Amino acid sequence: MVAITPDILVVFAVILVALAFFATEPVPVDVTAIGVMVSLMLIQPASEALASAGMLGAPIVLFESYPGDALSGFANTATLTVLAMFILSEGVQRTGIIQLLGAKISTFTGDSELRQLGATVGVVGPISGFINNTAAVAILLPMVTDLAERGRTSPSKLLLPLSYASMFGGMLTLIGTSTNILASDVYSRITGEAPFTMFEFTALGAVVMVVGVIYLMTIGRRLTPARIEPRRDLTEEFEMAEYLTEVVVREDSPLVGQQVQRALVETEFDVDLLQLIRGESVFLEPLGPKEIQPGDVFTLRTDRNTLVELLDVEGLDLVPATVTEDELELADRGQNLVEVVVAPGSALVGESLASASFRQRYDATVLALRRGGELIRRRMDNLPLRVGDTLLVQATVESIERLDNNRNFIVAQEIERHDYRESKIPVAVGIVAGVVALAALDFLPIVVAALLGALAMVATKCLRPTELYDAVQWDVIFLLAGVIPLGIAMENSGAAELLAELVVMTGDYLPLIAVLGVFYFVTALLTNVISNNASVVLMIPVAIEAATTLGADPFSFVLAVMFAASTAFMTPVGYQTNLFVYGPGGYKFTDYIRVGGPLQLLLGVVTTLGVAYFFPLT
User: Is the keyword Transmembrane helix in the record (predicted)?
Assistant: First the structure.
């Protein structure tokens, strides 16, 4: 039995604190990861100082090369490969090829929910094998919501399968998800074996995807709830009838002659001005500088009690009519009302609409906010935003296009865009195919091929140089850089070996394939609470130590951990794609357990048996 040393206790303490922070997210996970890295860097010199003062028997050594090992996450091949893959995915996205594919799909799905579901999972799965699956869901989400709208289907029936199918697809190739790339690097570094090849586990991934798709098309389809009714109107979907109204300015109103900003915006009332109707003209933001005239009709977002106060004080009369989506899109007969999802890594996470100056910055008005199944339609300005929050936004066509181009948001409806580089479709697809071929043929290491492909995207003008930095999800990069040193510290301290010994004890009572299953389910449960990349870093060293002790092939155990870490179905926080669809689908937390629980159990059995079938356990 491995002796419990101060080094091990310190590493376990850091892990427990990190797990608590990952699970509760008082700060973003990437900040937690950097905090872990900095903490590990401080422990070693602090312990040396205490040992020199006679307060500690021996210094705590977590890194053989200090501080190089602690900072190695930034220069790690996995980190750089993931960074390059974000750029490759962006290059493909900018061509509009996936949007064109979605438009063609809608022509034959019609109003059949089964065909819509089949098209959704059938498209996102294969695509997620070759571009980052998180990016695939972000690109396809507007297509799927429009597919549901045109077919009179609840978007809730399609969006959760969209997320799950992207995870299946991510397991088809090495580049399907950052978790695969990280797992390959950790395995190679610990064992000294070659990293995974491009299609090394594709056969197993295909089996998992087929079984998963069959589940979603049958049992999962029945379990997936229709939380949002098929919408005729966004104002109906967000139940805005009691919060939208029109008022007309009377001749004797004290507001006449005043600027809108001073008279109606900078007030104590919980009121948002959506549009001004003056004669035959309709005006949207910015309304602040306009001077109020008798007969002006304002469309407002407010509650009934505030409206009564406003009518009493400001000399306004109520217009007795229901405000619909069509009326909110009178300004230029364009698409002025859309759902906007707060994206992972958004600068607005933790900010409120007021602190982010949302209205002023984007010339857009938020009418309502949906967080899972909860609808918020009043006092929203000071509510901290979270990833997956869905905002009902009214703005001009130009402002909506700017929101669609902004990496902080995902516009959940397809909007007409004119900046796709369709002429570059063959070039972008060819570059990705070239990267896959170079890596698959082992002509170049995957990191070199991916970086070469990223450079080619710029050289061929599929991407502009200024778009490179926006293409990268920097929170994922910093998360990887921060957690990689934790895995190194686990190995060097003996913490991984100790945990492995505890798991190996089950080998006295369970067959080897059952121990493999234990690793899958423990990793799956962990991943549903914390980051998938953090799960890989924590579990792979333990899996390799356990396999070695049991006389098994570490590769098989690493595959079980990797597949489990890439398929977190039971919570909205387990995987970024689950958060993407949480707000637009109107889901409850329990929906993920209801639909994802049986799927997790099914794929746990399939993956464990599949690993044993395709790869020898000993």
Answer: yes
Whether domain 334-394 has CATH 1.10.630.10: the reply is: no
Q: Which residues touch 42 (CB under 8 Å, ≥6 apart)?
A: none
Domain boundaries, the chain: 77-228+419-472, 232-326, 334-394
pLDDT attached to residue 520: 93
Q: Do domains 232-326 and 334-394 have the same CATH topology?
A: yes
Yes or no: say if 44 and 63 are a contact pair by the CB < 8 Å rule: yes
**Beta-strand runs (E) in 310-363:** 316-319, 337-342
Tokens 């006092």 correspond to what residue? 379
What is the C-alpha to C-alpha distance for residues 609 and 603, in angstroms, rounded to an integer? 10
The burial class, CB within 10 Å (0-12 / 13-18 / 19+), for 208 is buried
pTM: 0.80
Cβ within 8 Å of residue 544, ≥6 positions away = 187, 190, 191, 496, 500, 554, 557, 558
What integer pLDDT is reported at residue 298 of this predicted model? Answer: 81
Residue keyed to tokens 């400001």? 314
Using CA atoms, how far apart are residues 275 and 297, in angstroms rounded to an integer?
8
d(CA 35, CA 37): 5
| CATH number, domain 232-326 | 3.30.70.1450
Which amino acid is present at 43?
A: I
Per-position DSSP letters for 382-412, written without gaps between them? TSPB-TT-EEEEEE-HHHHHHHHH-TTEEES
Cα gap 238→244, rounded to integer Å: 11
Cβ atoms of 203 and 563 closer than 8 Å:
no
* Token couple for 410: 């995902």
143-173 as b/e: b if 16+ CB within 10 A: bbbbbbbebebbbbbbbbbbbbbbbbbbbbb
pLDDT of 418 reads 58
CA 63 – CA 71 distance, rounded (Å): 10
- CA dist 520 and 522 (Å) reads 6
331 in helix, strand or coil?
A: coil
**Sign, Cα dihedral of 294, 296, 301, 304:** positive
State residue 325's pLDDT score. 60
Asked if residues 256 and 248 have their Cβ atoms less than 8 Å apart, the reply is no
191, burial (CB in 10 Å: exposed 0-12, middle 13-18, buried 19+): middle
Output the pLDDT for position 452. 94
Cα 350 from Cα 529, distance rounded (Å): 20
What pLDDT is attached to residue 218? 94
**SS3 helix, strand, coil % of the chain, rounded to 5?**
60, 10, 35
* Whole-number pLDDT of residue 361: 84
Tokens coding 463? 């991407």
Alpha-carbon gap, residue 367 to 235, rounded angstroms: 9
Residues shown for the chain:
618
Contact between residue 314 and residue 255 where contact means Cβ atoms under 8 Å apart: yes
If one counts every other C-beta atom within 10 angstroms of the C-beta of residue 332, the result is 12
Tell me, what's the pLDDT at 326? 61
Q: How many helices (H) and strands (E) does the chain have?
A: 27, 10
Give one word for 367, left, alpha or beta, with left for phi > 0 and alpha for psi -120 to 50. Answer: alpha
Residues of the chain with pLDDT under 70: 1-2, 102-103, 106, 231-232, 241, 263-269, 285, 312-313, 321-335, 415-418, 507-508
Closest to 148 (Cα-Cα) out of 124, 113, 114, 107: 113
Closest to 38 measured CA to CA, from 16, 62, 3: 62
